[in-house]
Amino acid sequence: MTVIAVLTNPTSGKGRGGRIGDVVHSRLSDTGYQVRALQGRDGDEALDLARQCVEDQVETLVVIGGDGMVHLAVQALAGSQTRLGLVPAGTGNDVARALGLPRKDAEAATDVIIGGKERAIDLAKAGHKYYVTVLAAGFDAIVNERANEMTWPKGQMRYNLATLAELRTFSPIPYVIEVDGEQQRFEAMMVAVGNSESFGGGMRITEGAVIDDGILDVVAIMPMSKLELIRTFPKLFSGTHVQHPKYRHWAGKVVTVAAPGITAYADGERMSALPLTVEVAPAALRVLVP
């Protein structure tokens, strides 16, 4: 009987993780897998559990959760032979979006895992941390910082209020970026370094990024008025912001981003203060896909 490990974040998606876990466990068991159920009391313990799976040479680690839970698991799985299976249960689910996984049907997502079709994807590495989707370093990261300091309200409304609060005082940020040795200096509203296309629940900031091409996509949104920024924001969800005259794009394998007073986020998780150097890690993660 094949052992499959299932790591659950019971609090993800307002408690959806726990409910979905029951569905996944029974479906895998019915298919003949021996399920090793894992649940960390906090992020550190969850990471230890994921690392133990790699050490035990478990073939597949299934994550039930959102992008933050995937981000955590990837720190253990990067460069290993243990495959990632994903049943989305978060609010953003941009990793699932990048992999073409069912995002609202836990049974269908579990069937992808049972199907066993494998793909090797790139990761991006910043310092000692890996990420799957997009590193954001600008207005969006400042909003994230403010939202994390707020205790009320919960969910998306907290980010909406944080956005309005920051917009009042925001001014363009002076950046120095280097892409494969070529340096650029400019002011911008934000810079993003994408391994895949979207972050923040479907905002396709690095539109056109391919998750297994060995290349990082770098996007800058140059200075614009606050009104224009509000007008442009919805275009991120369709990817049509690429037609805006303030959009800039570069591509490379090693990217350094520097700016004063900015903390970068990736996969929605706090990374570290800039400057940061990001390198592509080609085919560093084995994943199960439709």
TrEMBL record:
<keyword id="KW-0418">Kinase</keyword>
<dbReference type="InterPro" id="IPR005218">
    <property type="entry name" value="Diacylglycerol/lipid_kinase"/>
</dbReference>
<dbReference type="GO" id="GO:0004143">
    <property type="term" value="F:ATP-dependent diacylglycerol kinase activity"/>
</dbReference>
<keyword id="KW-0594">Phospholipid biosynthesis</keyword>
<protein>
    <submittedName>
        <fullName>YegS/Rv2252/BmrU family lipid kinase</fullName>
    </submittedName>
</protein>
<keyword id="KW-0443">Lipid metabolism</keyword>
<dbReference type="InterPro" id="IPR045540">
    <property type="entry name" value="YegS/DAGK_C"/>
</dbReference>
<dbReference type="GO" id="GO:0005886">
    <property type="term" value="C:plasma membrane"/>
</dbReference>
<dbReference type="GO" id="GO:0008654">
    <property type="term" value="P:phospholipid biosynthetic process"/>
</dbReference>
<keyword id="KW-0547">Nucleotide-binding</keyword>
<dbReference type="InterPro" id="IPR050187">
    <property type="entry name" value="Lipid_Phosphate_FormReg"/>
</dbReference>
<dbReference type="InterPro" id="IPR016064">
    <property type="entry name" value="NAD/diacylglycerol_kinase_sf"/>
</dbReference>
<keyword id="KW-0444">Lipid biosynthesis</keyword>
<keyword id="KW-0067">ATP-binding</keyword>
<dbReference type="InterPro" id="IPR001206">
    <property type="entry name" value="Diacylglycerol_kinase_cat_dom"/>
</dbReference>
<keyword id="KW-0460">Magnesium</keyword>
<dbReference type="InterPro" id="IPR017438">
    <property type="entry name" value="ATP-NAD_kinase_N"/>
</dbReference>
<keyword id="KW-1208">Phospholipid metabolism</keyword>
<dbReference type="GO" id="GO:0046872">
    <property type="term" value="F:metal ion binding"/>
</dbReference>
<dbReference type="GO" id="GO:0005524">
    <property type="term" value="F:ATP binding"/>
</dbReference>
<feature type="domain" description="DAGKc">
    <location>
        <begin position="1"/>
        <end position="130"/>
    </location>
</feature>
<comment type="similarity">
    <text>Belongs to the diacylglycerol/lipid kinase family.</text>
</comment>
<keyword id="KW-0479">Metal-binding</keyword>
<dbReference type="Pfam" id="PF00781">
    <property type="entry name" value="DAGK_cat"/>
</dbReference>
<keyword id="KW-0808">Transferase</keyword>
<dbReference type="Pfam" id="PF19279">
    <property type="entry name" value="YegS_C"/>
</dbReference>
